[in-house]
Amino acid sequence: MKQSLIIREARAEDNEALLALDRQCSMGEGALLSFDRAPDFFARSRPYEQFQFFVAEAEGAVVGVGGAAIKRLRIKGEWLKAAYFYDLRVDPAYRRMGVASAIGGALRDFARKEAVELGYSLIAEGNISSLQFVAKRGSQPVRRCMLTVLSAHSPDVEGRGAWRPLAEEDVDQVSSLIERGFQDHDLVPSFDAITLKGLMRRAPGLSFQDLYGLEAEGRLVACFGLWDYSGIMRISVRGAGEVSPYFLLPLAFEAPALLAEVIHQTRRLLAERGRPLGRETSFSHRK
Question: pTM of this prediction?
Answer without folding.
Answer: 0.85
